[in-house]
């Protein structure tokens, strides 16, 4: 059994790497990319290659539960797409009020990479979270700086017959992105079991979307919700160790590193 950690990107290292190239490189790369796509007639990829350094306006903000919002940002063109590779995140940068230095945090989009015109983030508010607090305070029309796309571990379609995806809390976003990417690829026949650890029913983020996957892909996708108390969701396993002991060895495990 192979275990892969999805969230292994450290924003400080990413910021240093991007800063080494400079904002001017990001702007130049952006201009060249836009020009190339204009010539080819294909949709422009906002995070196609190199630094992006693009400010995107917030289009809408939806309250999901007591501490989570779904934020939709408008891309520079209605036909533009994020162009992110599967298991990628985006690096966001902001200057919260009262701070001299910027704050950089990676977030995993939950919208498909080929979704035209918009980019969706699911953001959990943390009590001392500088970036999450700032993002939750945004109103439609206000902008957020996106520095670059950050690639995660590469996913190879059909490399294994079955994969177990394990997540807890807001760590569900990279797992959701991977699930969505696998199931939307007609060439990828990988079966998926999701193990999602939650504290309350309100913490079952993206449950309607996972319910739809179970309905649309019967026999290929199953979601298992684990809870510290017994309730109406199935509770087959209680911790990561028993997860690894429960599932067959001839498969892969993608574990959100929280």
From TrEMBL:
Coiled coil regions, renumbered to chain: none
Entry EC number(s): 1.6.2.2
Keywords on record: FAD, Flavoprotein, Membrane, NAD, Oxidoreductase
Binding-site residues, FAD: 105-107, 122, 124, 130, 132, 173
Family: Belongs to the flavoprotein pyridine nucleotide cytochrome reductase family.
Enzyme class: oxidoreductase
UniProt cross-references to Pfam families, sorted A to Z: FAD_binding_6, NAD_binding_1
Biological process (GO), any one: ergosterol biosynthetic process
GO cellular component: mitochondrial outer membrane
Domain FAD-binding FR-type intervals: 51-157
Reaction equation(s) it catalyzes: 2 Fe(III)-[cytochrome b5] + NADH = 2 Fe(II)-[cytochrome b5] + NAD(+) + H(+)
Compartment annotation: Mitochondrion outer membrane
CDD domains: cyt_b5_reduct_like
Membrane-topology annotation of the record: Single-pass membrane protein
Organism from which the protein derives: Verticillium dahliae (strain VdLs.17 / ATCC MYA-4575 / FGSC 10137) (Verticillium wilt)
Cofactor(s) this protein requires: FAD
Keyword Oxidoreductase: yes
Designated name of the protein: NADH-cytochrome b5 reductase
Entry superkingdom: Eukaryota
Record-linked InterPro entries: CBR-like, Cbr1-like_FAD-bd_dom, FAD-bd_FR_type, Flavoprot_Pyr_Nucl_cyt_Rdtase, FNR_nucleotide-bd, OxRdtase_FAD/NAD-bd, Riboflavin_synthase-like_b-brl
